[in-house]
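thread from #wetlab-drylab

HS: before we spend reagent money on co-crystallization trials with nicotinamide-adenine-dinucleotide, can we at least see a predicted complex? here's what I'd submit
DV: go for it
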Amino acid sequence: MLKNIVCIGAGYVGGPTMAVIADRCPEYTVTVVDINAARIEAWNSGNLPIYEPGLEEVVRRCRGRNLFYSGDIAGAIRQADVIFVSVNTPTKTFGTGAGKAADLQYLEKTARSIIKYAESDKIVVEKSTLPVRTAQALGRVLEANGRGLKFRIVSNPEFLAEGTAIRDLNAPDRVLIGGLDADAIETVASIYAHWVPREKIITTNLWSSELTKLVSNALLAQRVSSVNSISALCEKTGADIDEVTAAAGLDSRIGKKFLKAGIGFGGSCFKKDILNLVYLCGYYGLPEVAAYWEQVVKMNDFQAKRFVGKMLSSMFNTVADKRIAVFGFAFKADTGDTRESPAIAVTRQLLEEHALVRICDPKAIENARLDLAETEGDVSFFTDPYLAAEGTHAIALLTDWQEFRNLDYRKLYDMMEKPAFIFDGRNLLDAGMLFDIGFNVYPIGKKERTHF
Ligand SMILES: NC(=O)c1ccc[n+]([C@@H]2O[C@H](COP(=O)([O-])OP(=O)(O)OC[C@H]3O[C@@H](n4cnc5c(N)ncnc54)[C@H](O)[C@@H]3O)[C@@H](O)[C@H]2O)c1
C-alpha cells in the first residue's frame, strides 16, 4: 500500500507539485527534501522561497498535516514508497557537451543518495526534465546498490508553467507517465487519479515520455521564435504583428496560444531544453535536425539584441549617461523567477552602452540583484515604478506584469526627461494613448509613433 511519497528537490517544480499532491491526497504523507537548507527553512516559514499565485494557501492548508519540508534526506528515503526526483538539470557549462548537453550531476548524486539510504524496494519517478534514455543510465546506478534492492523507474515529466503552477497542477491538460513496469505506472497514476480524470492520464513507454517533455518545450519555444521573426518583418513592411497573429491563429490548425510577439522567451526551461535536444540530435548523428532546432534559440537571442538596437537608433544612437527605467525583470508576469530572462541580456547591453539602468519589478528585485551582481555599470533597483522612472529618458517595458498597464502614464511623462521614449517589449500598453500624452512609442512588430 502506497503511504509515503518523497520528493528530492524543493524547487519551482518539487515545492508546488508536492503541495498539490498533499492537498489532493490526504491519506499520503508527502515529504519534500533538499540539500539546500535555506530553501527548506523558507518552505517552513511564512515567506515561501518562490512566488506562485495560490501556492501559499495550499501550503498553509497542508504543511504539518501531511506535507513536510525537511533536510533529512536519509530518513525520508528510508520511509519512502515512491521517490519523485525533481532536482535541477541545467545546461552543462564544462567539458563534453558544454553549452548544450544537460548537466546530470545532480540527478546522479540523487541516485547515489537513494542507494545509500534505501532499505527497501522503491519506485523512482523522474520528475525533472531529462534527455531521452536517461532512465537507462539511472537504472544502472540504482541497480549497483549491491543489496539486491529493486528500483523501478517511471518517467512523469512536469508540464506546469511558472506563474500558473497551481492552476496547471490542479487542472492539467494531461499527466504523462512512461515506464516499463505496469504496476509501477499504475501506482503513480493512482496518485493523480485522486483529482485528474483517467482519460487525461496518458501512459507511454519510458523513452516516449522522456522525449515528449523536450519536444513540448521545443514546439512552444518554436512558436514564440516564429512569431518574433515575423515581428521584425512587420516593422519593415507596415504589417501589424497582432493583426497577423490574430488572423493566422483563428485557423484551428494553428490556434492562438503562444503567438504573442515580444522580446523573446525566458525561464529556466525553454533554452536549456532546446539546447539539450540539439545536443541529442548531434549525438545521434543528425546535424541537420540539430541545426533546425538551434535556430529557435538563435532567433530568441536576436530578438533581444534587435530590441536594444532599436532603442539605440531611436534615441539618437547613444544611451550613454541616459537614465533608462526597465519595467519588469522576471522572465514573465506572476513569477519572481529571472532565470534566462531576456531582461538580463537587454540590461547588460544597455550597461555596455553606458546607460544608467533603473530596474523595477514587483517580485523579482532580489533575483535581479543577484543576476547583475557581477555586471559592471550603473544600475539601481526599485519596487516603485514612479521612483524608478523619475528623471529618466526612456522606459523599457520587459515583463508583462498587469500592474504596468495600470500606471498613471501622464504622471510618468511629467516626471521624465523630454523627449520621452517608451519601448514596449511586450506590446502591453496602449500605444495611441501614450502617443497622445507625448511619448515616442515603440512597440514590437507594429508601427512606431513618434513626434519627430
Ligand atoms: N521551472 C519550471 O517551470 C519547470 C517546469 C517543468 C519542468 N521543470 C524541470 O524540473 C526540474 C527542476 O526544476 P526547478 O525549476 O524546480 O529547479 P530548481 O533549481 O528550482 O530546484 C531544484 C532543487 O533541487 C535541489 N537539489 C539538487 N541536487 C540535489 C540533491 N542531490 N539532493 C537533494 N536536492 C537537490 C536544489 O537544491 C534545488 O532546490 C528541472 O529538470 C526542470 O527542467 C521545470
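DV: The two ends are 73 Å apart (CA to CA).
HS: ok that's useful, forwarding to the group
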